[in-house]
Amino acid sequence: MHLVHVRVLVPDQCPASQELRDLFRARAVPAERVDHISVHPGENGLVTVGFFVTADALRTAEAVALAVAERTVADALRGARVIGCSGALVAEFYDRLVITPGRDGRTMRLPDQDTGQS
């Protein structure tokens, strides 16, 4: 599963977050495998829509999220426009570093007390 953020600039009369989420969700088709959508309003009409997409590759997930967002903007958010789309980097490698037994969540080696080297 991949998290893709799509940034949408919406007109002055922006619907509430839940209504926006429902608009995006209604335009995702089952074959696109969009599992979850979250909406995070920002300042000046900028909204970040998080798409959790099950796909083999990040590029595929990005294409799905962009397609759903563009359909939603065209169908239900007149005057809005998609201004960006990119995968959120939540790499499994970094997650594994934190949960590896004996690593204590550290991402740096401890200094060698005998030599003063780190």
Tally of alpha and pi helices: 3
Specify the CATH architecture.
2-Layer Sandwich
Low-confidence stretches: none
**Major β-sheet, in short?**
4 strands, antiparallel
Q: Major sheet: order of its strands? A: 2-3-1-4
Give, in order, the helices and strands. EHEEHEH
The number of distinct β-strands equals: 4
For the CA atoms, what is the radius of gyration?
A: 19 Å
Name the overall outline: elongated
Portion in beta strands: 25-35%
What's the N-to-C terminus distance?
A: 36 Å
CATH topology-level name: Alpha-Beta Plaits
What average pLDDT do the residues reach?
A: 84
Give the number of domains: 1
CATH class membership: Alpha Beta
Summed up:
With 118 residues, the chain is of the alpha+beta class.
Describe this structure in words.
The structure is a single chain. With 118 residues, the chain is α+β, with helices and mostly antiparallel strands. The mean pLDDT is 84. It is elongated. Strand 2 and strand 3 form a beta hairpin. The protein starts with a strand and ends in a 19-residue tail after the last helix. Helix content is 31%, strand content 26%. It has a four-stranded antiparallel β-sheet with strand order 2-3-1-4, with helices on one face. The protein has one domain: Alpha-Beta Plaits.
